[in-house]
Protein: Acetyl-CoA acetyltransferase
Organism: Colwellia psychrerythraea
Amino acid sequence: MKTPSAFIIGAAKKQDEVGSLDQVLLLESQLLQRGITPKHLVIEPLEADWHSPEKEHHFRSGCAPIEALAEAKRLIENGEAAVVISGEDHIRTGYSRENRLSKMAVYGQSYPLTQAYTDLARAFSDNHTITEQQFKEFSSALFENYQISFRNALSDTFTPELLPDLRWHKPITDLFRGVDCANPMVDFSGRLLLTRADIAEQLGVDKSQWLKVKAVGLSRLDGDGREFLTDISRYEHLQQAYQQACSEANIDFVQLFKGGDALLETYTCYPVVPMAFLLVSGLVEVLEDIPDFLAEHSITITGGMNLAKAAWNNPALNALVLMHHRLCDGPEKLGLIHGNGGLGYRQGVAIVERVDV
């Protein structure tokens, strides 16, 4: 008997009161009317204890949505009819400033994220013998690339006021400006519905709105934080996740992407992560090629976490929702979404494809 494929047939998000989850909730209610109760996978919010064990069907970190997608794919391939992936976090209105900052200090008050990012960037730069000045130049090129994607994603609704003001362009560490790091100060909720093909047909969802989960590659190191900086900075585990996904999907992503046939959403929490992705994926041969590559290719469809935001553990969920809309409504057929967990010890790469009607 043929293993069933997993299809994303509903994708919706709401951010700071803009948008609605109704499209997915309606499909879920239609499932319940047919006596089908979907399995529910949850992306945990900031308020969840970062250091506690993850409960079954709960996922935590920036890689969580990709890990949840891998689990949804596995469940459907093993006969589950439908799976819902949901994430909700009211970062802007749900926490006091003190509580929010305390919860975000996942490596302790004495080792803030900005310091961890800087230490990781230095280790990565040393690995590839690039200077501090080169790192900053590549970071600037990345932010310019995100801005173009952000404008394009919003198109008619874009206004300059949506861009970060001048204070965000000032350095906050030796290597980073405010605009270089993610700023998740939003209220976000997102929802994906995945089903088998027969269930999607029962629900009457037009095939043009089916997105096949072709492959998900996952890799993680034994631990996170300061003690694992050297291992993280090599990004061999990211390369492993990427190659696993491309092999399972049986694609040459570099060729498809450079040919304009695929979309990409790299994880942009801070510049070293997309730099590493571009390198280990083979999109660039050496880091020095990054500015020229970015002048030709958009590496996010959203504008990245820095501009499109999306709360705490949800950026890759936001990307999956928007990738569904872009692929179902646009000329490209294939999309790759990257997730980075913690300081980078968890890596995930998902490849999705529009179904030919």
